[in-house]
Amino acid sequence: MKTIYAFDFDGTITSRDTLIEFIRFVFGTRRMILGFLLHLPWLLLMRLGLYDNGKAKQRVFKHFFGGMELTAFNSHCELFAQSHAYLIRPDMERLLANLQEKCQEVVVVSASITNWVAPFFEGKGVRVIGTEVEVADNCLTGFFSTANCYGKEKVARLLETYPDRSLYRLVAYGDSRGDREMLEFADQGTLVSSSTSHPSLFTSLFKIKREERIPSFIALVLFVAVNIMAISKYFHIFSLTGKAVWKQFVWNFQVSGFDPITYTVLTIWDASYNPFRHPLLAFFLYPFHLLNEGLTALTGMNLVQIVVMLPLVFFAFYSFIFIYRICREIIGVGRTDATLLSFLLFSFAYVLLSFVVPDHFGPSMFLLLMSLYISGKCIQRGRHLNITQTCLLFLFTAGTTLSNGIKIFIDALFVNGKQLFRPKYFLFAIVVPCALIWAFATWENETFTMPREAKAKAKQIAEGAKEREKLFAQFRDTTSLKDSAVIARVFNHKMQVMKHERWLANQKKPGNAHKGRPMEGKGFYKWTDTTTPRLESTIENIFGESIQLHPRFLLCDTLRNRPVIVTYDSWLPYVIEGLIIVLFFFGIVCGSGSRFFLMASTGVAFDAFIHLILGFGLNEAYIMTAHWIFIIPIALAFLLRKLNGLPLLAARLLVAFLVIYLYAYNLYLLVGYFVG
């Protein structure tokens, strides 16, 4: 059985859309812009799905080329191909050349006009199927003689050219929504990047692609603005030097349950994080400590907030880009949908906050999204994660937040399949890095944490002994008792009563009262929670506070001054929450057959297990938002890809409404909190 290789042209073989380039080549930039402005209403309706893609293109084509002689038109096409050969991507050119050397049958199936596509492949044995122009009296009428070769029409034209489907195997390459049907029709369909067909994942990760520039720049401005706003609240305090650093940050910083430990680490470096939860985080931050130390020496101010802002904005910026690429390149939605869903993710309250506060959640989300993107591209291209890649992803992800390291192995399982359990891979990609992380965490605990805790305990014992001595002297001087043994016995009893009263009072404080009852009081079990109500927490916190801030107890901490469960004051937030959950549910249904979606949702299922089943951090579940909530826009991307026509338009408008509402609602409250 022979194999036929079918390629889309614009964005797949070429680096950009050739219609625009061809019009600019023939008429110049000024006339091109004017022509597109005249047709802007039709183009906007097309983007919204209210006007047929082929009809919109035909209007533009007729405006520019209607009445032109065919000879002149073809001459322009040949010259365009000669002068714009650089539009062909080098890697795609190599792939085509390789197929031709092997005498494979190659066909280009394009919505572009055949007349200017064909000259790019003249003499190369490549068949071109495209949109054909109508000619009358040797002049272009401006109309098409065939249907626009887009979407289902690509499949129809392929079957028209190669009617007996049982005689060949079809391998297809495309980059956009217009190629979806052809990719699904093929035995092997590959959705390539709209900027580069087969980029090296680890060398081009941080290269900003042309279509990403505008939305990512807008997002960047937002991230910088929100960070500056948050810095302004505390700068007059945190910029001071020579203070008791830990107390200065902890006593003054209050944004939900986020910890300002990073400020301390960058000011006076120490491995202050829990070594078994964040084993490498303090060491990742050491270069930033050196930077802050240098800036402090130069300025006389502690600029730790600004130093922390730099990586946070970087992580936010690329998290936005990675969720965009996941939606666009892996799931296959259009630019509009990918942009909408990317902004939707960052409209969620505790996603925005994660890239403002000095905590580990922002970096964790960046690492998880990057890992999902890399893994998704590997699945798409039929490649495996090698040992080095898996180790690096695990060490960075688990080193930042240990529990998230599990998700790297989940990704590797879905990407590599049974290859994961090959002795060499399992040993060096899983066992060895796990052992290294645990050994390092143990060393860190013994070197930094235990001596610090022992010192604190010794200080506590000394202060307790001093207090006991003082209280005993006061009791002895004021009591009517004369016998020293009786005095000691009565005093010890009073101390036991006072100790118990202090313990009871301490248990009633929010820091203890809101933790819930753990399964056991030692090891990892001490972080579990068996008593915090799951349903209320899911409604008000996990899908509530995570997405929409509670105006009451705004950004208060359950360990200080906020109840675990806070309700909204009106019905509207619950309606918004319900809409998101409904869309999420239908997205799950649409994505359930996707290997990539199963991979992403399995990682989220792990979060659900540790938070909802074990109760880890359940009293503050919303601060964990960045670890899992990206599954919502991913699910919605599958939903939007599935829909067509009016249902698609309705879904887009609903998502757009949610984006606008959530930004307006959350930013209003955040501005009031940080600036007001």
Sheet of most strands: 5 strands, parallel
Corresponding CATH superfamily of the domain at 2-198: HAD superfamily/HAD-like
Binned, the helix content reads 55-70%
- Global structural class: alpha/beta
User: Rg to the nearest angstrom?
Assistant: 31 Å
Instruction: Compute the number of helices.
Output: 28
Unreliably modeled segments: 195-200
Mean pLDDT: 89
Looking at the structure, the CATH topology of the domain at 2-198 is Rossmann fold
**Tertiary shape:** elongated
Sheet with the most strands: spatial strand order:
3-2-1-6-7
CATH class of the domain at 2-198: Alpha Beta
Instruction: Find the count of extended strands (DSSP E, 2+ residues).
Output: 7
Q: Approximately what portion of the residues adopt beta-strand conformation? A: 5-15%
Please identify, by name, the CATH architecture of the domain at 2-198: 3-Layer(aba) Sandwich
Distance between the termini: 71 Å
Care to describe what's here?
By secondary structure, the protein is an alpha/beta fold. Helices cover 62% and strands 6% of the residues. Among the domains are: 2-198, Rossmann fold, CATH 3.40.50.1000; 454-515. It contains 28 helices and 7 strands. The strands form 2 sheets. The protein has a 5-stranded parallel sheet with strand order 3-2-1-6-7, with helices on both faces. Strands 4-5 form a two-stranded antiparallel sheet. Helix 9 links the parallel strand 6 (168-174) and strand 7 (188-191). Helix 10 (213-238) packs antiparallel against helix 15, helix 16 (335-347) runs antiparallel to helix 27 and helix 18 runs antiparallel to helix 26. The termini are far apart.
